[in-house]
Amino acid sequence: MLKRLDITAFLYPLISLAVLVLVWHVSIEIFTIPDYLLPPPASVFSALYHGLISGELWPHIATTLEETLSGYAIGCGLAVFMGALLAESRTFERFFYPLLIGLQAMPKVALGPIILVWFGFGMASKVVLVALVCFFPLFVNTVNGIKRTDPELLDACRAFSASRLYLLLHVKLPAASGEIFSGLQIGVSLALIGAVVGEFLSAQQGLGYLIASASVSMSLATMFSGVLLLAAIGLTGSLIMRAIHRRVVFWEARSEKAGR
Amino acid sequence: MSASLSLNGVGLTYPTRTGLIQALQGIDLQIEAGEFVAVLGPSGCGKSTLLKLAAGLLPATEGELRLANERITRPSRRAGVVFQKPNLLPWKTVLDNVLLPATTLKLPTAPARQRAQDLLELVGLSGFAGNYPYELSGGMQQRVGIARMLLPDPDLLLMDEPFAALDALSREALTLELQRIWSTQKKSVLFITHSIPEAVFLADRILVMSPRPGRIIEDYRPGLPRPRTLETLNDADFTAACHHLRRHFTHAQAT
Fold it and tell me: Hey, are the CB atoms on B87 and A150 less than 8 Å from each other?
């Protein structure tokens, strides 16, 4: 029963995707759209295929992945750490929370050019931009998750002389893990945005660079293959994150099912 | 060994947006070693606050609380607590939940594990040590909470409407079970409830509280023989005791 559900969950979106590609293909034929505006799906797929076979695309993929993953790890690590610190320390909260909320309202990619000046045109600036972009949603979720821990659950543990550290590590953080994981989930797509924007600004390699440089030669098939690869990376990343979420926060879905 | 809890002139006032609220006023009470005392009162009379004070979770603004002649200033190993909700950690197994006080109080591991197993047997859950709380019914979760409370072998049990959220049948079963557990362990109990029959059935003494500010308005000993069984519920003395207590609540709502 469950297996069949899983198959249809993949099958239905694949069908609509196929229909979309078909509409794409047919409309190029009907409206005679020129290649330099919208290439037919076949030439996009062949550009993608040849790029992967010849190995031309791999360094770009590797660069973007490396920037995204390192920035994501740094940004998310800092977000959970700072979030826990802020939720625990009243002083820290008073001094920094308003500033951080103000920063959150600002579009972080606007800092891109400045970060480029500070961290150079290499990988470091992209990693910093990625970290910055995925920091905020996770940070806010961590703070909220910890603060929303059931006060009665905390009292029950305090009644057994639980220390502050025990409450943080064994009660508050697990209680916040649902929200932390949704922050991690949002972070996956934001991290890719950060990496691509960084590469648009200045880079020698990466999928963002590939798309930007292909636009100079109006090679739309290459641009589309870059976009498709980014979509594939984003999708894979969020599927992996979702699987980890389910495994780590295993009690969440089941408690709901049990009607609590 | 059981210890006695004593409260002298305990009061609690707390500030709100609209001014000071007096939750409790001039509470004097003694619980002798091994005595089962129920506190009965309408909702919002501060009886849960009273329990939090006794647990050392909240400081009193007036008066003094002592447990075995020591001032209560923070949670102590000598007192175990159970709330209306089981308050189990959903990410820990039943056994690990029962062992929580062993971790937080840094008790030696091996004897604590043995005791946890024994207590799970006592509450009839020995087959569920490896299960997670969401796999248990509400009544079973509350039994886990009771086992957790008993783990550090406290002298005083503080119970805040532990059966109020359960269905009628689980509630009846757990009430009988609590009496059985209490008779084997002989601990002092402070049992908060808003159910008159529950108070009469379980307790040696019943303290009736007034609506806010909470004060104790009667100290009543029904003197029913033990052990009490389901037959006790039909007993004339039982009914008379319930009737006697109910007169406090005929004007105000007792639920």
Answer: yes
Phi then psi for residue B61, to 5 deg, are: -90, -15
pLDDT tens digit string along B245-255?
Answer: 988 887 654 44
pLDDT of residue A255: 67
Contact A159 B103 (CB under 8 A): no
Residues in chain B where the model's pLDDT stays below 50: 1-2, 253-255
Q: Which fold has domain A39-257?
A: MetI-like fold (1.10.3720)
CB nearest to A251's CB, from B77, B91, B104? B91
What residues form DSSP beta bridges with A250? none
Question: CA A242 to CA A187: how far, in whole Å?
Answer: 12
Cβ atoms A209, A57 nearer than 8 A: no
- How far apart, in whole angstroms, are the C-alpha atoms of residue A67 and residue A124? 8
Across the A:B interface, residue pairs with CB atoms under 8 Å apart total 66
> How many whole angstroms from its chain centre is CA A97?
24
Residue ranges of B 161-200 with Cβ closer than 8 A to chain A: none
Q: pLDDT under 70 in chain A at which residues?
A: 1-5, 255-260
SS3 A14: helix
- Domains of chain B by start residue, with CATH: 1-34+41-78+155-162+187-255 (3.40.50.300)
Domain ranges of chain A: 1-33, 39-257
